[in-house]
Amino acid sequence: MEKRVMTDSKRRRGLAAASALLGGVLVLTACNGGDDADAGGADGTQKSQAQVDAAAEKQTSKARITISPKNGATDAGINNDAKVTVSDGTLTQVTMTGPDGKTVKGELAADGKSWKPGEQLDRATVYKIAAGAKDSEGREAHENSSFTTVSEANSFIGNFTPENGSTVGVGMPVSINFNKAITNRKAVQAGITVSSSSGQEVVGHWFNGQRLDFRPEKYWTENSTVTMKLNLDGVEGADGVRGVQQKTVTFKIGRNQVSTVDVNTKTMTVTHNGETVKSIPISAGSPDNPTYNGQMVISEKFKETRMNGATVGFTDDDGKGEYDIKDVPHAMRLSTSGTFIHGNYWGPDSIFGSSNTSHGCVGLNDVKGAGDSGQPAAWFFDNSIVGDVVVVKNSKDKTVQPDNGLNGWNMKWADWKAGSAV
């Protein structure tokens, strides 16, 4: 009985050994595949790992593609951040698409080594880039990436005047109003350059955290060209808030026209380069509502516009405007607070040159509808451009504040330069 048990035990051990051997063969086959040519050499011997790696390396492209920004990046710039480059090869194709699937136009370098978008990207937008390249032996490489551009909440822009390509008067400053408060003024101002073909020194002045103006010490030289370069893309203007603008703006300076309003004599003298070209009788602010003194720059022109006293604080006991004229002719703005030089058809002809009757504006004789080109107001309107200077003197009022309109000329040059952050 004991002998039989020993025989069964030996048989079980033999079956287990055979099973283990068979299992090992199956595992080996599963890991290495069934292709004898790949698993072994020509003589049927097994390849070493080094041989396998060498074979794989021969099939791998040496081209190395780099996509910027990195995959998954957020707050990417919309001008300069996106770029594809390749080393040890040339790019064969780059496709950049927005969330709508629309392809972004791009520019491939002549040597095939780099690619960049040919247009400004949108803010707060996810973009995808798929790139392909080949090395010197024609082996292909591919890379894919996606990133999100900076959001409006985390970026700032500057709205500026004058417009690109415009022609303006000698008093026109470059005025930039940022849509977010700037705390890093030095970095932002350093990213903006303003220069003149006349060679005049141009200095920036911060009126507050959102407004930066540039001007020379004296009025711009007539017939010169002014160039502003905004290199603000990626510049941090405040904590976590970066600029997105990169552009060049140029504008022309026209003839040198300065008009001087003498409140005492009730006359305006228009000069070109200091030479009088016309004298016009006016009616300035009344003794109760005098006109600001100072150098004021025409910032807007309207052939006709509405003027409501309620919008500038002139109201009656019922809270209504002391005046509401819906068709003021030939109106040109001199201050943000509501000072205009404009045509006046409602006053008698006798007031011009003899009596100051307005609520602070400078009035010139005109007709209703602004249709008579022979009227003094029409002549002045037709012969004025945005940026021309109107100087008011001998008024009983104070001098207009430099930041009330485009009127920084009322600040001494030393004080202006003291407001620069660079």
UniProtKB/TrEMBL annotation:
Q: In which pathway does it act?
A: Cell wall biogenesis; peptidoglycan biosynthesis
Which residues catalyse the reaction? 342 (proton donor/acceptor), 361 (nucleophile)
**Entries under CDD domains matching the protein:** LDT_IgD_like_2, YkuD_like
Q: Where is the composition biased (Basic and acidic residues)?
A: 102-117
PANTHER family in alphabetical order: L,D-TRANSPEPTIDASE, L,D-TRANSPEPTIDASE YCIB-RELATED
**For this UniProt entry, which residues form the secretion signal?**
1-30
Sorted alphabetically, the keyword list is:
Acyltransferase, Cell shape, Cell wall biogenesis/degradation, Peptidoglycan synthesis, Signal, Transferase
Region spans: Disordered:
92-117
Q: Where is the L,D-TPase catalytic domain?
A: 257-393
**InterPro entries registered for this protein in UniProt:** Big_10, LD-transpeptidase, LD_TPept_cat_dom, Transpep_catalytic_dom
Name used for this protein in its record = Ig-like domain-containing protein
